[in-house]
Specification:
The complex is a heterodimer of chains A (about 140) and B (about 400).
Chain A: H1 2-17, E1 31-37, E2 42-51, E3 54-63, H2 66-79, H3 84-98, H4 125-141
Antiparallel strand pairs in A: 1-2, 2-3
Helix pairs in contact in A: 1-2, 2-4, 3-4
Chain B: H1 3-7, E1 19-20, H2 31-43, H3 54-73, E2 81-84, H4 87-102, E3 108-112, H5 117-130, E4 133-137, H6 147-153, E5 158-164, H7 176-185, E6 189-193, H8 205-208, E7 212-216, E8 227-231, H9 233-238, E9 249-252, E10 257-259, H10 273-289, H11 291-311, E11 315-317, E12 326-331, H12 336-345, E13 348-349, E14 351-353, H13 358-364, E15 369-373, H14 380-399
Parallel strand pairs in B: 1-13, 3-4, 3-5, 5-6, 6-7
Antiparallel strand pairs in B: 2-8, 7-8, 9-10, 11-12, 12-15, 14-15
Helix pairs in contact in B: 2-10, 3-10, 4-5, 11-14
Classes of the chains: A alpha+beta (about 140), B alpha/beta (about 400).
The structure holds pyridoxal-5'-phosphate.
Pyridoxal-5'-phosphate binds near residues 86, 88, 193, 218 and 356 of chain B.
Chain lengths: ~140, ~400
């Protein structure tokens, strides 16, 4: 259970209990993507606002396990203020890290790096990915 | 019946630390079944109903011998047994072939929130296409289908009743025999989802008088990819095939063709031959043990575990009164997906989620649940390990701040 403990004790519980940037906005300058993981019931909506090539805001809402919900919160903090190119790069790196693919260790993932521990729990990789996948979707929409 | 001895028949359980509590999703398979599959692939792995050579004759004999076993298993006639890919395909076959061709906007279909998606969605589809009305039996306070509530929705417009025999989430046994009797009084046909019944109790389709009944091989010690649809002869006779192709046809012309009789008109293409033969072996295994013994054993384990669970703080059990080996529960404040990773760490396999039955999860007003299900190879020690792990999980999640 050590691995699990490490995982939860870090950022995850903190963000699960006190999520940042939570709640959606009814604002057409945001792109919105909703993703559901039908097998476990995780259900996340992500909004992003890109202006002049900068990620101005990221919002999230939904229900799910601690890994899923906390990762949306961590993601929002990590990505707000980044350029769109950096945000894209960070997202790609994060998703590669989760799935044990080769990834560019020089990319600064900030707090999101703790989710590297999730790769010890393959059944949970999906939980840690869906918020980021949804964000990726909002970027594509804003293209 | 000695569960400790039976464990030795299941190669997956060679790992003595493994506690397998997810039989409701799929059972483990005993050596006796695996051997039959190997035998098919090693000795006569050829097609059925086609070759005129002797190997094909052997394969065909064994395939059809399994059909005979299945028919005896549920007290049906030989030609009332259609092999399918699983319970889902069987239930879809009923809805598509019978439902789409017999229902109109004047008719009503009764289902319930206690159904697996494979029972309710095919009828939702029929309802959308034919405009027949989909009607839900109100569940009682425990989440059960009762005869009393069923009578409230049954009426002369009811043409189809599609309900489960045993619920895969709550483990309740439906009063299906009485429901069938009442349905026939108004001229409705009844399609029974027996996926969770067939592994655990004796089914007698003549005694039930059901019109259709479906189950899967893989939940009752058999292989994946094989299932059964039972249909009453006189209904099957008038039902059109839903898949067209090899083997199901009789005479083929340029612009029309005729079909073989049932069951073959519903078995298009090369069937799951090994699967059917393996299912026959699974039935032998179950018959050998006797359902009386199997269900008594499961109920004993379930009651034992529920009693212990209820003593643990923060544990919510949703189906205390169920008659079968399924327990659906949660640890208060802990998402089931978080919890299940902890159990996985203790090498305990169980299910977390909505169990392909979102309607009952919504009815329970939760996001998801944990589920354990006991079977013939589980022991009191498995229960104890599970209970210990639940306690530790509860303590762990509390300690990290849930
Ligand atoms: C009650 C019930 N009906 C239908 C099914 C579908 O069975 P299969 O997935 O084998 O087609 C299941 C299995 O999950 C079930 O539990």
């Amino acid at each position: 259970m050590r691995d699990l403990e490490v995982l939860y004790r870090q950022v995850i519980m903190e963000h699960y209990k006190n999520p940042r940037n939570k709640g959606l906005l009814n604002d057409s300058t945001y792109k919105t993507i909703h993703i559901k993981n039908p097998t476990c019931g995780d259900d996340i909506t992500i909004q992003s606002k890109i202006e002049d090539g900068i990620v101005k805001d990221v919002r999230h809402d939904g229900t799910g396990c601690s890994i899923c919900c906390s990762s949306a919160s961590v993601m929002s903090e990590t990505l707000i203020g980044k350029t769109k190119t950096d945000a894209k790069n960070i997202t790609e790196t994060y998703l590669n890290m989760l799935t044990n693919k080769e990834f560019d260790e020089s990319v600064e993932l900030e707090e999101a790096v703790v989710y590297r521990g999730v790769n010890k729990f393959p059944a949970r990789i999906k939980c840690a990915s869906i918020a980021w996948k949804a964000f990726e979707g909002t970027l594509e929409e804003s293209e | 019946m000695d569960a400790y001895l039976l464990k030795k028949d299941f190669p997956v359980l060679d790992d003595k630390t493994l506690v397998y509590l997810d039989t409701a999703a799929s059972s483990l398979k005993p050596k006796q079944v695996i051997k039959k599959l190997d035998e098919y692939y090693e000795k006569y792995s050829v097609n059925v109903h086609r070759g005129v050579y002797s190997l094909s004759y052997v394969a065909t004999q064994l395939y059809e011998e399994s059909r005979r076993k299945v028919s005896e298993f549920i007290n049906a006639d030989f030609d009332e047994i259609i092999f399918t890919r699983g319970a889902s395909s069987a239930l879809n076959l009923v809805a598509t072939s019978y439902g789409l061709n017999n229902l109109t906007s004047e008719d009503e279909i009764i289902v319930s929130e206690l159904e697996h998606h494979s029972q309710v969605l095919p009828w939702q589809n029929v309802s959308n296409i034919t405009k027949a009305k989909l009607i839900y039996v109100p569940l009682n306070k425990e989440g059960r289908i009762t005869v009393e509530n069923f009578k409230k929705v049954l009426n002369k417009k009811t043409k189809v009743v599609a309900l489960n025999y045993v619920s895969n989430v709550m483990g309740y046994v439906s009063p299906i025999k009485e429901i069938i009797r009442l349905s026939h009084e108004v001229g409705a046909v009844v399609s029974v989802d027996a996926a969770q019944a067939a592994p655990h109790m004796r089914i007698d389709v003549k005694d039930l008088d059901c019109d259709f009944l479906a189950f899967s091989g893989h939940k009752m010690l058999g292989p994946t990819g094989i299932g059964v649809m039972f249909g009453k002869k006189e209904l099957l006779k008038d039902m059109p095939p839903i898949e067209f192709g090899g083997d199901m046809n009789d005479n083929v012309n340029l612009y029309d063709a005729s079909w073989k009789d049932s069951p073959y008109k519903f078995e298009t293409g090369t069937p799951p031959i090994a699967g059917a033969i393996g299912l026959g072996a699974a039935i032998d295994y179950l018959n050998n043990l006797g359902f009386e013994n199997i269900s008594t054993h499961e109920k004993k384990l379930k009651d034992y575990a529920v009693e212990k669970l209820l003593k643990i703080e923060d544990i919510i059990v949703y189906n205390k009164t169920s008659e079968t080996g399924i327990i659906t529960f949660n640890i208060a404040g802990v998402h089931p997906h978080d919890a299940v990773t902890f159990f996985d760490g203790d090498n305990i396999c169980m299910r977390a989620g909505h169990h392909c039955a979102q309607l009952i999860i919504k009815w329970l007003e939760v996001v998801a649940t944990l589920r354990v299900s006991f079977y013939l190879y589980n022991t009191i020690e498995d229960c104890d390990k599970f209970i210990e792990s639940v306690k530790n999980a509860r303590d762990f999640f509390k300690s990290v701040g849930f």
